[in-house]
Write a structure and sequence with these properties.
853 residues, alpha+beta, Immunoglobulin-like, 9-stranded mixed sheet, 6-stranded mixed sheet, 41 strands, 30% helix
């Protein structure tokens, strides 16, 4: 009993005072090393956003705290959409004697919990030279011998070419016992561009991160700071390089404030806390003069890539499996030394091939290694038969002063496209003077510059509504669990197929409702007439004519062949916005009743023939097969390809590949918002398809919309997990877990020693979690109320009328919204906590399979 109590007390103590994790709380001391008698700072840094709170200052022999009220500092940085917060608590102290100093573990309150910091071992030294009095006079007399700079090129060359990268090093010498603070050097070069070092040095992108060394000149020891950079001239002629640098020399006597890069303890220059007088000192180095020569004329029969330096280029091109209409990739792999900023991808002249715009990936070296880049061209052969590619690429070699050419010659046979290639590759190495050099490794994190290609396999139709896809498996698995629990073994199987024509079924049902609507018209009161018109008459006429179920009264009036009925419905729809207009106009109601009775039967007979005529008219320009549609797409006939893929859509079976291909066609036609609607619908049918996600994000960037599928916080991660499966797949997972639970309950009767509690709990958790995801999807990403703007700069009105006042905001193409209400051809929408009325034709529902063409 006593051991249990002791263990519980230990766990409570450990939970209350858990060691601080490096990711949550860190302890830092500035400056390093500590100097006896001079002020320093103890910094408690929290990355959790909340300020840490030191419960009590420890009593430390040889250390004097400078007050018990700390200073506070808070900062926030955002890098690549990742936010990092830092909250600092700063205590001042003075080490009173030299030697070893130990700051013990301290209790810190961090939010709602208490943590223990790690002990900090410090070294306190005594200043070797005093900057006061005699020493200050010594510095004033021999200042140029204690602090000076040198600048020089890291090469013996005196003449360079335009675009050639020139390395430069600046060395700052400061006496070890001199208290100074340097600034970044200032370089004047005129017609030159500096290399970008922002990836490794955020303080100054013109320099690499400075390094430190020690050097002894005569009897004086110096700390040497090395500032390295590189630049490239952009114009021929003489070039002068002037280097200057400002340093602040401190003499004890007054206060100053610290700040900037060189106040960091990394520089270890002593006394950064401002108890000294400051004297600014400007240092210069002798002017460096060089000559810059222009590049000679590039070879006429070669494509110059804009590279100047020492470069090697290898090409990769498939040598087999070329088929018409199927894309192949030509890769130029580049490696060497020099600036990549001048790299350009020339346009290829390839008769018999369609060439897409090239993509360029650059990988700048951060550690002095080789610079790497890759250029990719997508080639699509248009004709079968023998083909030849004869290309040449070049770069300028600064060592020899000549152009290096890298030819590519390849002959191959193009077959008629009937399927995809097997992906076999042959590498054509065109590296000059280095035929055995290997290809570069493909880098990650590339951003595409164009949408991906069409999908050839379109046998991925999904039944809609989605619950129809796994209905048999869901029913069987749902019944399997309880039945196997009750009797051990029982199977139930049932198959249901729906193969009816929805348009035909609508016409038959409308004909059956016709007499019932006529009776309602005769007995309807004036107050009931509006609801009868919108909910009965207009839908019945839509079904008879084969129009979309969402066609409004005004749109229907423009299409009806019976002009008497059309005029009556149009007048009635306009009167709906005037309260009491229908009640005061019995003649209008009688006209609608008389015209409806007379025209309903004729519409029922004529609708079938109009539908056949319409289908015959649409079928003429449409390709007859998927290969023909792909060929039309490759030849730029995006209109014909779009008509083919639109004709493949069905309200009973929805294919993600068909929607994806239709989106590609609409994108190339310039209908970006409509293409994004197709991609969003395809993504809901195939949520784990990477091609659909890439094209969706590419188009969202085009429309200045945020990307999807990337988790920046836990809530977005959970939402991505939710949309990893479709609702029918979550349902299938739930019934699988249900069946597994029933099986476990049955097996436990057979094997008494089976530990079934944990597996049963897991099965129950999976079942409940899947059902929760299913319910969440039904009211979020798969809700039929989700819509998207397909118009450009859509005007939002405060009321459903063209004469209503305009809202203070507009909706841009591709913006997602929620549909709150629909009234005739107007829809009330909500987007970003504002709402208003827009035309129905300017939005599209993302999950409405009765009207998604």
């Amino acid at each position: 009993m006593s051991k249990s109590i002791t263990g519980i007390l230990f766990l409570i103590t450990f939970a209350l005072y858990m060691p601080a994790k490096a990711a949550e709380l860190s302890v830092q001391v500035y400056p390093q090393p500590l100097i006896a008698g001079e002020a320093a700072e103890l910094v408690l840094n929290s990355t959790q956003g909340a300020f840490p709170e030191l419960i009590s200052l420890p009593e430390i022999p040889g250390l004097r705290w400078m007050g018990d009220v700390p200073r506070r500092s808070q900062s926030t940085t955002i890098v690549n959409a990742k936010r990092t917060s830092s909250a600092k608590l700063i205590y001042g102290f003075v080490p009173e004697k030299e030697g070893d100093l130990l700051i013990p573990a301290m209790q810190v309150r961090l939010g709602s919990k208490k943590v223990l910091t790690d002990p900090v071992e410090l070294k306190v030294i005594k200043r070797s030279a005093d900057a006061r009095g005699k020493m200050a006079g010594k510095y004033a007399e021999k200042f140029d011998k204690l602090l000076f700079m040198k600048a020089g090129l890291l090469t013996d060359k005196k003449e360079f070419y335009v675009g050639e990268e020139i390395p430069l090093e600046i060395r700052l010498y400061g006496a070890e016992d001199l208290n100074y603070r340097p600034a970044w050097p200032d370089i004047e070069t005129g017609n030159a561009i500096f290399r970008d070092y922002s990836g490794s040095n955020e303080e100054n992108p013109h320099f690499a991160y400075p390094t430190q060394s020690h050097e002894k000149i005569g009897n004086q020891s110096f700390i040497v700071w090395h500032f390295r950079t590189a630049f490239r001239p952009i114009a021929p002629g003489p070039l002068q390089i002037k280097v200057s640098q400002t340093c602040t020399v401190s003499v004890p006597g007054s206060n100053k404030r610290r700040g900037g890069f060189f106040d960091d303890d990394f520089f270890n220059i002593g006394d950064p806390f401002g108890r000294s007088e400051q004297e600014r000192c400007s240092l210069t180095s002798p002017v460096i003069q060089i000559g810059v020569k222009p590049l000679p004329a590039a070879p006429e029969n070669s494509s110059f890539l804009g590279l100047v330096g020492d470069w090697q280029i290898s090409t990769e091109l498939p040598s087999a499996n070329w088929k018409t209409g199927e894309p192949q990739t030509l890769r130029l792999r580049i490696s060497g030394s020099g600036p990549l900023d001048t790299l350009k991808a020339p346009e290829l002249q390839t008769p018999g091939f369609r060439t897409y715009p090239p993509e360029i990936d650059k990988t700048a070296s951060a550690n002095g290694g080789a610079e790497k880049a890759e250029i990719r061209y997508v080639l699509i052969p248009l004709e079968k038969g023998p083909a030849e590619l004869s290309l040449s690429f070049s770069s300028f070699d600064t060592k020899t002063g000549t152009y290096k050419e890298f030819p590519l010659k390849s002959k191959f046979e193009v077959e008629k496209g009937s399927g995809s290639s097997d992906g076999s590759q042959a590498y054509v190495n065109a590296m000059a003077n280095n035929p055995t050099a290997s290809a570069l490794t493909q880098e990650k994190g590339r951003t595409p510059s164009a949408i991906l290609y069409l999908k050839k396999d379109m046998d991925d139709a999904v039944r809609v509504p989605l619950w129809q896809n796994h209905i048999i498996a869901v029913i069987c698995l749902f019944l399997f669990g309880p039945l196997v629990w009750a009797c051990g073994e029982f199977w139930h199987f049932r198959r249901q197929r729906l193969a009816n024509d929805p348009a035909y079924r609508r016409r038959i049902e409308a004909g059956q409702r016709r007499r019932e609507i006529q009776k309602k018209l005769q007995s309807a009161s004036p107050s009931e007439f509006e609801a009868l018109l919108n909910n009965e008459i207009v839908p019945c006429l839509n079904d008879l004519m084969g129009y979309s179920p969402g066609t409004s009264a005004s749109e229907l009036a423009e299409r009806l062949p019976d002009r008497e009925l059309a005029e009556a419905i149009k007048e009635a729809s306009q009167s709906l916005y005037m309260p009491g207009a229908l009640e005061r106009s019995p003649a209008l109601r009688e006209r609608i009743q008389r015209a409806f009775v007379k025209s309903a039967l004729s519409l029922l007979l004529l609708s079938a023939s109009w539908q056949l005529l319409g289908e015959t008219k649409m079928a003429a320009p449409v390709p007859n097969s998927a290969p023909e549609a792909i060929a039309a797409y490759d030849k730029g006939n995006f209109e014909g390809a779009a008509k083919y893929y639109a004709g493949c859509l069905s309200t009973q079976k929805a294919s993600a590949s068909v929607l994806y291909n239709l989106g590609n066609c609409l994108y190339n036609k310039g209908e970006l918002a409509a293409a994004l609607v197709c991609y969003e619908r395809a993504r809901r049918l195939a949520p784990r398809d990477s091609d659909i996600l890439e094209n969706t994000n590419f188009l969202r960037r085009k429309l200045f919309l945020p990307e999807i599928g990337r988790a920046g916080n836990p809530s977005e991660l959970i939402a991505n997990m939710r949309d990893a499966l479709r609702p029918d797949q979550w349902l299938l997972l739930a019934v699988l877990a249900w069946a597994a639970g029933g099986t476990l309950l049955a097996v436990r009767r057979l094997r008494q020693s089976l530990h079934w509690q944990i597996p049963l709990s897991l099965a129950l958790a999976v079942c409940v979690g899947a059902l929760l995801m299913l319910a969440w999807q039904s009211c979020s990403s798969y809700s039929p109320e989700n819509g998207m703007i397909v118009g450009k700069n859509v005007v939002v009105r405060n009321l459903p009328s063209e004469d209503a006042s305009v809202a203070a905001f507009r909706l841009k193409a591709g913006e997602e919204l929620t549909i709150e209400e629909q009234r005739l051809d107007w829809v009330r929408v909500r987007a970003s906590n504002v709402e208003g009325w827009v035309r129905k034709s300017e939005i599209a529902r993302l999950w409405d399979w009765n009207d998604y063409r």
